[in-house]
Amino acid sequence: MSLLFPVILAGMLSPTGVSAFRNLEIGEKAPEIQLKDLDGNDIVLPSIKGGKVVLLFWGIDTPVKEKRSLSVMNRLEGLYRRLKGDGLYLISIISDPDAKEKVKKLRRAHDWSHPMLLDDKREVYGAYGVHVIPTAGILDEERRLLKAFPYTHSLDEIVEGEVLVAMGKKTAEEWEKERQPRGDPQPENKKKAQAHFNLGKNLFEKGSQERAREEWLKAIQLDPGHADAYVGLGMIHLKEKNPKEAIEFFERGIGLNPNLRQGSVGIALSLELMGENTKAIKRLEDLLQDRHETPEVHYHLGRLYEKEGQKERALLEYKKALQSFFKTD
């Protein structure tokens, strides 16, 4: 059996986690969409002028996919009806073979009104690099990718919140506050630090590393105990190929919060960059022993095993990464 898993996973996983689209990064122009809808009409993405666009890639070929997809679809349809007068578009795309008649029945049953496109040849799915169903993306007025989300249990809530922020219906701070569990009020400096951290995270995801650095440094100035901000700065140094500096920040973050898995993964990737593959492997193996089993950890461990010529162990880790990533409820 050939080692196909690294090829599949390379686009799915990165030092910062799971990406929604293998072939499209935040800020990039979205590939063109030219498909027929359920009624045989040609729909072309560039012809949709102005406004934000929500793309939903969904499926009904298994009960799990159908359950998840319908939950997200119904919530986004409601959002579309509320905001289409403000310029919001919703387009759903399905690639299941021979799904047309069933989708028509679902459209009637749920009274969906947005354009529903058929991608029988999986051309659009391939152009975007869709690998999880359902997956959603938000495009700006220039048809550049603002946000993208693979399936999670709260995908419908997350997409709605991010759309409301993108449409100017609420601020990023308001949305972040809604997502945080209620508890004792934080001191004002910690609230401000968290706001700077959240802004830095968004900037980092969009590729604005310098601006993200500025925000995370502000977060640390306001709250020296903000472990996530240290890890974020470590990720910037890692991207800049400064592994020694990266490790310093990762270790400071872990010192403040020993459960920060991303910090330990960052140290392993920094060690790899320094040519210390054996130490990097040990770091990731320790994470697994501590029950930090995620697709990301298994994937990077598999990569390192493969680099060291341990192909059987690499294949096992790639399999575990896929199993963890695609596991059902």
Overview of the structural elements:
By secondary structure, this protein is an alpha+beta fold. 54% of the residues lie in helices and 11% in strands. The strands form two sheets. A seven-stranded mixed beta sheet has the order 4-3-7-6-5-8-9, with helices on one face. A two-stranded antiparallel sheet has the order 1-2. α3 (100-110) links the parallel β6 and β7. The radius of gyration is 21 Å and the shape is globular.
Give me the count of strands: 9
Low-confidence stretches: 1-18
Bulk shape: globular
Q: SSE order in H/E notation?
A: HEEEEEHEHEHEEHHHHHHHHHH
CATH class of the largest domain: Alpha Beta
Distance linking N and C termini: 29 Å
Largest beta-sheet details: 7 strands, mixed
Separate helix tally: 14
Rg (C-alpha, Å): 21 Å
Helical content band: 40-55%
Structural class: alpha+beta
Mean pLDDT: 85
Q: What is the beta-strand fraction?
A: 5-15%
CATH superfamily of the largest domain: Glutaredoxin
Query: Remind me, CATH topology of the largest domain?
Result: Glutaredoxin
In the CATH hierarchy, the architecture of the largest domain is 3-Layer(aba) Sandwich
Q: Strand order across the biggest sheet?
A: 4-3-7-6-5-8-9
Number of domains: 2
